[in-house]
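U., I forgot to send this yesterday:
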Amino acid sequence: MVFFIAINVPVAFALGLASLAFLVFVTNVPLVVVVQRLYLGVDSFPLLAVPLFVMAGILMNTGGLSKKIVDFSAALVGHMRGGLAAVNIVASMFFAGVSGTSMADTAAVGGVLIPAMISKGYKRDFTAAVTASSSTIGIIIPPSVPMILYGAFVGVSVGTLFIAGIIPGILIGLGQILVAYIISKRQGYGSEEPFSLRTAWSTGIRSIPVVLLAGIIIGGIMGGIFTPTEAAAVAVIYAFVLSAFVYRDLTVKSFYTALKESALITGSVMLVISVANLLGWVLAYAKIPQLLVNPVLSLTSSPVVFMWLASLVLIAAGVFMHGTALLVVLAPLFLPIVAKLGIHPLQFAMVFIMCWGIGQQTPPVASALFITCSLAEVDMWTVTKANVPFIAVLVGVLAGIIHLPTLFVFWVPRMFGLM
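Result:
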């Protein structure tokens, strides 16, 4: 499998070929198992939320709804030193409450703000770094497609995962705003127009229908009104109605484009998840996870030390592997050790998702950086250097999740009776 990935075979095919080779040459298992496991991998109600949230995020972008969020964010924080950088981060926080993916966040917010920041004199590497790093909030603040995938694959409640991401997501946003402010002050980046209550009020009124969508999704899940999958369906309908009939920015052509992009993204993700179920079965059949438990436990019996070791492995692997591949390859290996050490599954889930986000910021496999570098027309390695202070914020929140889980992870779910 590692060989296939190293020679740039697509992840889904690399996983499938490795699993098939093991079954054919090492075991006597009938190959009908392959078909069964591929089907069972996507035969999951929570996974229905993936194409729906992807569609909702793309509709917001193509339908012009993301521009309303950017305008409102500019009215709120544009007056700060380095105002457009803060606007970028705040807009990502708002957009994260709807899209569920960092790529949708990057394309929507970056498409509007990267040209604006460059025209105002912000360095291209700083502009791309702010956009890429803030897009990580998109997979932490609910709804989150990676959380849906993790919950469906591992068996953790997706709704509880969503709620657990609220505090880390907010802290990431606040930390990145502080970093952007400090860098902007050193570089001499100015503010935008002075704060105007009238402008904030008017843009806020215009953006209420868009922001309300995030409130409906999160509030509906927290209140037990609907499941994450049902919330995703509501998000698509709501975004379509707003784009097509309220703001009237969605054309037939742009709607077709949204459908096409959603299908391409969903198809690639679902193919990996389907094959991942086969790989997971093969690993369990070969008892690979059990073989790793004792060697790891002989190194440490400390849950904290193990979570840091697991984080280092996940982040290092994330340099070369997409987050979905991390999930299907490494989660089955870590989970038996997590259970042995008594680590709460929700805490480790948040550790895993945070490392997933950090991995998206580290080349060569860095989907968020690819988009921002293309938009800003700048070299990826230059942006990576500028991105280090923002990645430090992510690592800081990861440390909080590991060392202070009661505050960072468990507090909000317990408040709503989910634990």
